[in-house]
């Protein structure tokens, strides 16, 4: 049985193969494509107040959903080309964060919020 | 039965809850965190030649895997906060691309490579 | 008489030349480096409330200043390699925006804020 | 006498003022806008080979010039809102890089190319 991300990766592999686009899908190019799509996603939120960003109307949400789809496409394709399992890699980082950010120490304090991790 | 991305989203939800970090996880903040992590991923590849990027040594691959993990963490958390199914959104975009890029027209020509889609 | 950006571009040209790093400074690599540095700049602001971001303490401001320096370095080097005058290009975009966003129409309304321009 | 970047900053200040858009131009929003524009710039280069990226045709160069203009607009506006002098900040980073990357040590070796600086 394959996972939904493996199915998506397989579809992308076939998508590139039938168009002879594999030569474009180098790690450098794919990471640039991912970065470009994340830029479009950021642009959807840039002028919104925090409150507006939490309460998108149907049109804005549809655009955001499309951008999230593009980001997922390139992230999945990049990981496939590199042979990395995204969900395993995410859990490995969360194992680290679990050790690093003791809930009893970090709970309830904005000032202790870490600069980068979740 | 839940999927592996639903499991990851649930772990992230709990991770934020026990630290009282939900207030930081607004869409604006999460999209910024995603953008920052993609920047770190891009930095791993910036000075490599195309050939070097295809043949990462174990140390570089471990760093890239860690960055891919961070990107997946924030992308999954953002999608969860917005109520978007990433894999569904990706397939919807690919349905569009399948219609838009006829393999018989686009096959084998660099010049016809689209500016943005996969 | 040269401008301050021309002086900076000249310093960067020499910086690359004496290290034999010109071969790394291709447009693709430099645009990736710019993207990576902007990611680090975004990361400085990601968890701040809008009010906190307006009132950085000296330590945070020093970090932000350093990241802005890095972004300026790569943007200037990229423009130099491509033969583009950044300030002329910016004024050309503002000429467009002046025509496109009539102050009498756009003034005072959040809802009319354009998706992308300033 | 003012510099060309000060003149550009002054034009942007007035541009925002007459439209009552100052409230949108918070540091968080402007850094997101900068990130979005850099994403568009990256997208211009993503599928090009290194050789193609060095030899843009007139149409591609015009698009790249427009994106560089947008990036310069937001970078200048962000620095103005934060009270940072971009060119001074860039020279300060280059002073550091001059100390850190001795030309005699780093010259002529791809493998010694630093992960991040120019």
Lay out the secondary structure.
The structure is a homotetramer of 118-residue chains.
Chain A: H1 4-19, H2 27-45, H3 50-53, H4 58-82, H5 86-100, H6 103-106
Helix pairs in contact in A: 1-4, 2-4
Protein name (chains A, B, C, D): Nucleotide pyrophosphohydrolase
Organism (chains A, B, C, D): Sinosporangium siamense
GO molecular function, one term (chains A, B, C, D): nucleoside triphosphate diphosphatase activity
Main interface by residue count: A-B, 74 and 74 residues
Q: What low-confidence regions of chain A span 5 or more consecutive residues with pLDDT below 50?
A: none
- Our count of helices of chain A gives 6
Summed over residues and divided by their number, the pLDDT of chain A gives a mean of 91
Helix-and-strand structural type of chain A: mainly alpha
Largest sheet of chain A, in brief, is: none
* Distance from first to last alpha carbon of chain A: 31 Å
- Specify the CATH class of chain A: Mainly Alpha
Q: Which topology of chain A does CATH recognise?
A: Helix Hairpins
Q: Count the domains of chain A.
A: 1
Going by CATH, the architecture of chain A would be Orthogonal Bundle
Beta fraction of the residues of chain A? under 5%
Looking at how many chains there are and whether they match, the oligomeric state comes to homotetramer
Query: What do we call the CATH homologous superfamily of chain A?
Result: MazG-like
In helices, the fraction of residues of chain A equals over 70%
The shape of chain A, in one word, is globular
Rg of chain A, rounded, reads 18 Å
Could you state the order of secondary-structure elements of chain A as H and E?
HHHHHH
User: What's the number of extended β-strand segments of chain A?
Assistant: 0
